[in-house]
Design a protein that fits this description.
By secondary structure, the protein is an all-alpha fold. It has 12 helices and 2 strands; from the N terminus they run αβαααβαααααααα. The protein has a single domain, classed as Up-down Bundle (Rhopdopsin 7-helix transmembrane proteins), CATH 1.20.1070.10.
Length: about 300
């Protein structure tokens, strides 16, 4: 009787749809992909930490991005590959809420960090004489604390609101737990959650979007007016990297969240975009910044050479 009761209290995630003959290849691929993500992001983290020439505002802000990416990948991949090999998609409500919190925490952190990096590039390109004053160590620390404080407080409130309800349904409509899927399990009045969810979405997505639009418009204006071709090319290349990373995350996240509020939205598309938010940014961020940012690329190569030689 107790076992049956505990099973009824569990939630059921959407099936992965993987045929039983592909279970172990999918498990191996998922595990390797996760380890590659963790390795690449740790490599960026370690390189920035040990290379004194990278102790600049741009790279100190970038330092926060791999931390966020590792959190998102760890919230998603270990449970996914475990459920693939065990063919068990059941999860406890507490574990589901925890996973959802970490995934939303990761997404919001990435948007806020990328907007702070855009602001840093704006100051560096448009106000170079004031750069050291505006992006001083004290102000940089304040920006980083503000990023994580806003993120934590908004997400904690969001999931405290959902945790107060008892779930009357058990089927999660996505491949992982998230706030919109959890709200669909509640049979009580959730208008307050809806209002707060919309408000938080406007703040954590609309705010960074406004920052990106304004800063990049000013950067583009400054670069077009600049007479130095090399400097203009370097500035546009650096900003282009930030913009690609931001747009991939912003577009996928926006579609995923809005599709939960549109009845006719394709479930397959929603799941595909939702999973892509957790796969592409953590995988591509260290590769894009490692290859496109010359200082970071050189420091990574130096770091790897030094450590490979020391182990021989």
């Amino acid at each position: 009787m107790a076992a049956n009761s505990s099973v009824r209290n569990l939630l059921m995630l959407e099936t992965t749809g993987i045929h039983f003959t592909h279970i172990y290849p999918a498990f191996v691929f998922g595990t390797l992909f996760y380890l590659i993500i963790v390795f690449c992001n740790l490599l960026v983290l370690t390189t920035i930490a040990v290379s004194k020439k990278l102790h600049k505002p741009m790279f100190i802000l970038l330092f926060n991005l791999p931390i966020s990416d590792i959190v998102g990948a760890t919230a998603f991949f270990p449970h996914l590959v475990f459920s693939i090999v065990t063919q068990n998609r059941m999860v406890s409500p507490a574990a589901c809420i925890t996973q959802a919190f970490l995934i939303h925490f990761y997404g919001t952190a990435n948007l806020l960090v990328l907007s702070a990096m855009a602001y840093d590039r704006y100051v560096a390109i448009c106000c170079p004489l004031k750069y050291n004053t505006i992006m001083s160590p004290q102000n940089l620390i304040k920006i980083i604390i503000l990023i994580w404080l806003i993120n934590f407080s908004v997400m904690l409130t969001l999931f405290m609101l959902i945790a107060r309800f008892k779930f009357c349904r058990t089927n999660i409509v996505d491949l992982y737990c998230n706030n919109p899927s959890l709200m669909k399990l509640v049979c009580e009045d959730i208008r307050g959650n809806n209002y707060y969810g919309l408000a938080s979405m406007i703040v954590v997505m609309g705010g960074p979007l406004l920052v990106i639009v304004y800063t990049y418009a000013q950067i583009l204006r400054t670069c077009v007016m600049a007479n130095h071709t090399d400097g203009r090319k370097k500035a546009l290349q650096t900003c282009g990297t930030h913009l690609v990373v931001f747009l991939v995350l912003q577009i996928n996240t926006t579609f995923t969240l809005l599709s939960h509020r549109i009845e006719n939205a394709s479930p397959l598309l929603r799941r595909a975009f939702g999973v892509s938010v957790l796969i592409f940014p953590p995988f591509l961020d260290p590769i894009i910044y490692g290859l496109k940012t010359r200082e970071l690329k050189q420091s990574i190569i130096t770091f790897l050479k030094r450590n490979v030689v020391s182990t021989k």
